[in-house]
Amino acid sequence: MIPKFPAFKNKWHTAQDFKMNSLMETPELPAVFDGVKLAAVAAVLYIIVRCLNLKSPTAPPDLIYQDTPLSRFLLKSCSLLTKEYIPPLIWGKSGHIQTALYGKMGRVRSPHPYGLRKYLTMSDGATATFDLFEPLAENCIREDITMVICPGIANHSEKQYIRTFVDYSQKNGYRCAVLNHLGALPTIELTSPRMFTYGCTWEFGAMVNYIRKTYPQSKLVVVGFSLGGNIVCKYLGENQTNQEGVLCCVSVCQGYSALRAQETFMQWDQCRRFYNFLMADNLKKIILSHRHTLFAESPKKPQSLLESDLSRLHTATSLMQIDDSIMRYGHQEAHLVTLPCHLDLPEMEAAVIIIVHITPNSFLILLFTGLSCLLFVRLLKMNLPCCK
Fold this sequence. Notes:
CATH class: Alpha Beta
Oligomer: single chain
Strand order of the largest sheet: 1-8-9-7-6-4-5-3-2
């Protein structure tokens, strides 16, 4: 019998050829991996550039105002309003990063100004609170000026952005009164089945009246952040007497009309739906923390309705759902009473100047009432080097 060496030899050569081919192909693998790594790094850099809006160009602000001698005087006196705003290089052009840094992580070495908490009893039994901070220096015009401040939705005087603003104002010689939205402070219990809404000015008006009675010689600078901008502008437009002694009103990042914003809030573009969920979750926690007061059983509201309210609240994922199921029942008169985009204030006196200041990365409204705004411009020119 002839042995089958040739077949064995062929198999041996085949295995040897396979090993040689593998050794020859091995040096090419690192090059492939390097290409994948390079592509991954490029993708990450592209995402970072897009998320941080680093390619977004800076530009001079767009100013929307009525062309009057007083408006021209304001713009000439404070050149800051017309100069190009250059945000911080890395994170200043991205609102998402700013929200993450300041809203969640907070500022580095955030100041803790010292103030006195005041309690005001409202006509319906609710207890409004605000914090009063006295000036730490003399202001540049040597006059008594009080800033009456209304924070954003579900915010209060203990929030870091409010503390920073108050600390800076105190050091520049201005008294500050900061409203704590009804129910927002975790350490203050509600004394009536009502909490803050998007358009109620009762608590803010009570705070302003207290300041006027306690400091009759003081001039007022009205400041509103976000939802607070709606409230302060509505307050000034409700009655002309509310404008007495007011130098100016500054509305920062105002939401304008909650009704018109409902559709926008539900869109995923720019993560709006995600932010809507976060704000709704925060508001839900505040409501549930006061559930024993807000959902107390009464003859006007049977237990079955209370259980239905709580069920809708637990399943709500947006501010509109919470408003429809809970907020409007506690305060129907002030349900979504907000200002439209054009700031139509029928009760505002004739000598009012509104300047809308828009940049690619910020938004600001300056509202001046009467000729007393000239005093505020003088204050700006003396405090801000860029306004001189």
